[in-house]
Design a protein that fits this description.
The structure is a single chain. The protein is mainly α and 129 residues long. The chain is built from one helix and no strands. The chain has one helix at residues 4-120. The longest helix has 117 residues, at 4-120.
Length: 129
């Protein structure tokens, strides 16, 4: 005859077999998913190396262009400061010209006007209006 212990052992073995059978399919599917993830990571690793190398080249070229722009902006700054100096020199030259030649030029114009008036005879006998 079968004892209660043997029945309990048989039920335990049966439940364990059902548990193993029920978890086998999900575990197999999980194994396939993990294999796909492993392949995806491997492909991503192989594909990322050329992309990173291209990115490194792009960054180096960008830095080179930024250095060129820096040189150009420095040159523009120099040209701007030179233009300021030229305009200041032109203003100073204009002031110097008007100071040295402006007064005598006005006097010369007044003198020639007076001489012309005198030769025409407009000076002594006529009254000013």
């Amino acid at each position: 005859m079968i004892t209660y212990g043997e029945i309990a052992a048989f039920l335990a073995v049966l439940l364990f077999a059902i548990f193993v059978g029920a978890t086998t399919i999900p575990l197999l599917k999980l194994g396939r998913v993990l294999e796909e993830v492993r392949l995806w990571v491997r492909d991503a690793n192989h594909n990322s190396i050329p992309i990173l190398q291209q990115l490194q080249t792009t960054v180096a070229q960008t830095n080179s262009e930024i250095e060129k722009i820096s040189v150009v902006t420095d040159d523009v700054s120099k040209v701007s400061s030179n233009a300021t100096v030229v305009s200041e020199n032109a203003a100073n030259l204009s002031q110097l010209f008007s100071a040295t030649l402006g007064g005598p030029l006005v006097k010369t114009a007044a003198f020639t006007y007076g001489v012309r008036k005198a030769f025409r005879g407009e000076g002594k006998g006529k009254k000013r209006k």
